[in-house]
Amino acid sequence: MHGPVSPGWLLVVLCAATGAYCLLRMRSAVEEQRRTAGGEALMGFGMAAMAVPAAVAAPPRWAWLGYAAVFGAAALRSLWAARTDRHHLHHLVGSFAMVYMAGVMVASPGHHGHGGSGTPLMTGVLLLYFAGYVLRSGARLLPVAAVGMPLGEGVRALGTGTRTVGWGDRPELARACRLSMGIAMLAMLVTL
Questions:
Q1: DSSP-assigned letter for residue 158
Q2: Would the pTM count as exceeding 0.85?
Q3: Is 157's pLDDT higher than 50?
Q4: Are the CB atoms for 48 and 15 separated by under 8 Å?
Q5: DSSP 8-class letter at 168
Q6: Sign of CA dihedral 70, 101, 46, 33
Q7: Which CA distances in Å does 134 have to 47, 181, 184, 185?
Q8: Please, which residues bridge with residue 162 across strands?
Q9: Nearest to residue 110, comparing CAs of 54, 180, 40?
Q10: What is the model's pLDDT at position 21?
Q11: Which N-terminal stretch is annotated as signal sequence (predicted)?
Q12: What are phi and psi of 23, to 5 degrees?
């Protein structure tokens, strides 16, 4: 997770920006947006904090234990929520990946970014999952032929009328944020 400084800072900025956008989505009038935005904001800011280059600030052991505790609690919440909403299974896997990476850093604090610190099988399984997630999320962002009115212009059809949709309620932006976090998770897992 703590490899070269420049890519580390790019990850920090990407994840923090994604977390900030997810916080804005929590103010949405759309219930589905609000329901998942809090967990995604936590994930974005947590990933940003974990991606800070070790050359700048090497977290103490207790910080990694704190990450593991916070994301362990998030995993339990996602497990509970997955009973009624399948989307929370992805949050469960993401939270588990964060607990796993924090655990790797607790177990081998002197090997940040040098590989070989995590369990190769577990790291490989998580890499495969997130690679598939990134490919699927990227494919969902591809434009499709619209029938009738284009929804990508900030307008959503409501029965026979239309209304302007705020940029915080646009599903394609939420998907782009999820894609960004998936790519960041891949980058963080590769350096284990």
A1: E
A2: no
A3: no
A4: yes
A5: G
A6: negative
A7: 16, 9, 10, 10
A8: 157
A9: 54
A10: 92
A11: none
A12: -65, -40
Residues 23-40 pLDDT 10s: 988 888 877 777 788 889
Domain ranges of the chain: 5-190
Residues 124 and 116: their CA atoms lie apart, in Å, by 12
pLDDT in tens, 55-106: 777 888 899 999 999 999 999 999 998 898 887 899 999 999 999 999 998 8
Query: Phi and psi at residue 162, in whole multiples of 5°?
Result: -135, 160
The number of beta carbons lying within 10 Å of the beta carbon of residue 145 is 4
Question: What is the rounded end-to-end Cα distance, in angstroms, of the chain?
Answer: 6
DSSP structure string for 14-65: HHHHHHHHHHHHTT-SSHHHHHHHHHHHHHHHHHHHHTS-TTT----HHHHH
The residues, any chain, with a CB within 8 Å of residue 187's CB and separated by 6 or more, are 7, 11
Count how many Cα atoms sit within 13 Å of the Cα of residue 15 in the half-sphere of its side chain: 25
Pair of tokens at residue 61: 């052991």
Q: Which residue has the higher pLDDT, 162 or 41?
A: 41
Residue with token string 């590989």 = 115
